[in-house]
Amino acid sequence: MTLGLPGHLARDSLSRALAHAGHCAAWVCLGVAVVIGLIAATIGHDPAGWTTAGLSALLAGILVLVARYPTVTLTLLYLVAGTGAMLVLAKIVMDPVYGLGSTDNVVLALPRIALILVGGAGAGSVLAITWGALGYGLGEAAAFLGATLAGGAWTPNAAAATALGMLVLARGFDGLSRRNDARRETGLHRASQHTRELAIRHDYELRATARLHDTALSHLIAIAGAGSGPVDERLRLGIRQDLGLIVGRDWAVDHGLSSLQSDPRRSDPSLDEPDASSATDGRPVLEAAFAAAANAGLEVRMTGDLAVLALLGPGRAAALDAAVAQCLINVARHAGVHEAEVAVGLGGGEVTVAVMDSGVGFDVHHVPEDRIGLRTSIRARIEGEGGSVRLWSTKGVGTTIVLAVPEGGQ
Length: 410
Hints:
This protein is of the alpha+beta class. It is rod-shaped, with a radius of gyration of 41 Å. About 35% of the residues are buried.
């Protein structure tokens, strides 16, 4: 029983609702007692009627305070005042002049029910049942003492016992249902936590796959392009650095392709026209992408303004740089051409980079499953930053791939 409320709000809300319902029923009982007393005093000319009405009104007033400020002090005050009022009413009502056979009558049932429905301080079914049972016991004790003083017979009141039974049933069912809801909520929480753990693990697996793919492929291309003979020392150093990242603790972080950045052919004149290594605010601007093209012997024609890449956060810019690098590596490996075009643009709150070639092309609907370059190093990397990848390719015409990522990011 949660009424659609979140678990952390349902318990207090339902307890307050049930307590308020009990208070309303108690006010009805006390109101009826006030009316009976006023009728007896005005129509029946019985002075005891004024006492009955006054005591019932006093209890109703104290109950208002309990409902407004449900503290232990006010709850005990209400029970003490109710017990005293019950004692006085029982002594009056059980006077032989009224001819009532026992305390099991309507007049004495009303204040006793009001005592049971005190609600009281604290939340939860156990406390509510405890206060109700205490009210029932005090009411019956006061009725017994009053009847004894008046010389009447005491009998447990059936209406009061019924009210207590209904209270126990309602509160008991509420407590059991909320306990079951808590178990289900715990199970849902565990399932949600497990789902988040799987998502994090999947994200790290994608990062690991992309990092291993990019690093190994880039190094192989760089070594192949170096020709025969000893490997350049700076290229060797870059390879060591990247291998250190892979086996180290920061393997899942995009650090850029250090080996590509340190390659001596990074100064290829064919790449000077876009000033690829410049940074508008201290961050590299497609540095790894142009370095990868240089290592692969691919000439790149640049259009657009690289300065728009400064609108991206460092992490998002690094992811875009690595994805573009993979696109250029794919051109060098599969397109059968030695040149490509990179166009950078800004629109609709997104930074876009298009990589185009006029190579052999391919069927985009029949990319083998083992081709992780497009799936992991490009698409998963861009989509992980909230971006999108669109690809067009026609055999014998060429391929165009457009990477778009939102501005900002980390």
